[in-house]
Amino acid sequence: MSWRHLLHVVGAVLGAIGVSMFTPVVVSAVYREWSQLPGLLGAAVLTTVVGYLLWRVFDRPGELSTREGFAAVGLAWIAIAIAGALPYLFTGAIASFTDAVFESAAGVTTTGASIIPDPGVLPHGILFWRSLTQWIGGMGIIVLSVAILPLLWMGAVQLARAESPGPTPDRLTPRFRETAKRLWLVYLVLTIIQVILLWFGDMTLFEAINHSFTTMSTGGFSTNAGSLGAYSAYSQWVVIVFMTLAGMSFALHYKVARRDPKAYFTSGSLRIYLGIVAVAAVLMTIATWGGSAADTIRNALFTSLTIVTTTGYATVDFALWIPALGILIVGLMFVGGMAGSTAGGIKSDRLHILYRASHTDVRRLIHPRGVFVTRIGKKPVPDLVVETVQTFFLLYMFAFMSGILLLAVIGSLSGSNIDIVTTVSAVASSLGNVGPGLGSVGPTGNYLGIPALGKWLLASLMIVGRLEILPILILFNREVWRK
Q: Which uninterrupted H or E stretch holds 375?
């Protein structure tokens, strides 16, 4: 493991983030928010300069090893979360360093948890930065860097393995850099289409851009306190469609667009993902039936999608629903979309593998001398993949239980006495990159009342969940750092 190689990669990523910070500078200038310009410009220049110096001073890696790729991603995302806090701090939009890092981490990890009671009071430049961090984090800043920066082409697959959501990165071409470009193209095109459709409705162009950024990234930051509940049924249906697309594999979208129009209909993973959403939506519809049937169905489908895809928008305050639905919502926070999507959570593909593997284990108990293979459809799943998924699930649940215990202890020691519903849902939501939870952190609440140490814990869980545990866990393994 070479620290010089790791800092070189971190510098390249910070440089890319620094350059992206100049866009809210332009937005502030367009809206004549002159008082915001010095802070935004200072944050952009500082981040860009630091990134450039790290990139220039430290060695360029010839070939990243697997462990260096995982470590580089873990360090890069921590650095991004800290750097992303600078625009908030330098403009005074958020005065506390802890709160600024929490908001930044919620952005780049596409969690959408916020300490801001009413985003509508924020300047346009800061609002744009919040949304942009989610859009960049959605497909992954590491994949973006691999796609556009030739300096990182060596070891690209190692970086992608560490950053890309899901069991394995889906390569569309032999060269990963070409695959990354194509996935980003799909991501960009879908974002533009959503902007146009939302702009046709009751959103301004600025609102349409921000909500498209945070829909396709399954992030959930909105420009007002009412989230999507403040907009028309038309806008909500547009977001429903694009949340569905964002929770699907982007490689699958590309295949449908370029090669195989029938791929949607032959994908078993897609059927499972849509099936989970449909079942949850039906249960929510039945349990909340009353008033306008159209509104009830739309709100149930919207809530089911926003939780399963870990987007985190809201059209109703689902924290007020009956306790049984609260349990269902927390359970859905673990599901996530398909592998290769921008969604968080465990991923429906992994849950399918776990189910099939458990079925195989039961058959082995009944027939000890039989030879059984775990299959998805007609395709056998290698034992190594099954073991990896089982290990991930175990680590995920360990992180969840540990997070609950630590947040409860922090709440007690700080005198906050966070209730159990808030504690469990906040940890599940942060680890699954969902955003809103139940209790005081529900759709109409926020995370401002969480103690400072609790915010650091939840921000850490956001990064752990976004990178799917291993890139962060590997940083604490002593064997990794031995020469």
A: strand 375-376
